[in-house]
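This part of the workshop introduces the protein records we will be handling. An example says more than a description, so a record of this kind follows:
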Amino acid sequence: MLDPSTERQPVTNSRIAMRARPTGPLQLQHFERHDEPLRDVLPDEVLVENEMLSVAAAARASMEMDTYRPQLVVGETIPSTVIGRVLRGPEDGPAVGSLVAGFAGWERYSIMRADQLRVLETPAPIEQYLSVLGQNGLTAYFGLTTVGRVAAGETVVVSGAAGGVGHWRDRSLARWVRVWSGSPVPTTRTPPSSDAWGSTRR
């Protein structure tokens, strides 16, 4: 980790990029590693040393087609959520050494604006920030409690319960909703993923 008492920063960054566009199951030949000079950090940017990266289905989809982001081009870094420690940043940004989450890619170091980062202050195992305390888990939670506002006696149907958000509603929040409101929670998903989690749950 970078010594914050010095003015130095890492000079090389390692990243994993798309080498070839997949048309079937992913293979090692679809990826390649690049070791490149790390660009300078601008005054309003934060340098993060990544400790954990997400491996999301959305990244696979973006290798093949436009999704919520444009289709990846050959040589582009595989996109992902990253969890890491701040090495350098502006005075009004996250403190050096703090644990943060942001959206960057499969790389050792990421450079992002301070407003693109979320400081992780809730005591929890770091991997939970990529799952139940991450984007998918929080989307499922607030989707049910703040947007959906589930009331006692209502039925909650989870569509696409094998997806990145739906599976958290199915596995964790469905049980919570049943206990909290007494609501049945049937779920739907497309075979063959359905046999991995079981069929409709109540």
In short: The two ends are 48 Å apart (CA to CA). Helices lie at 57-64, 135-147, 166-181, 194-197.
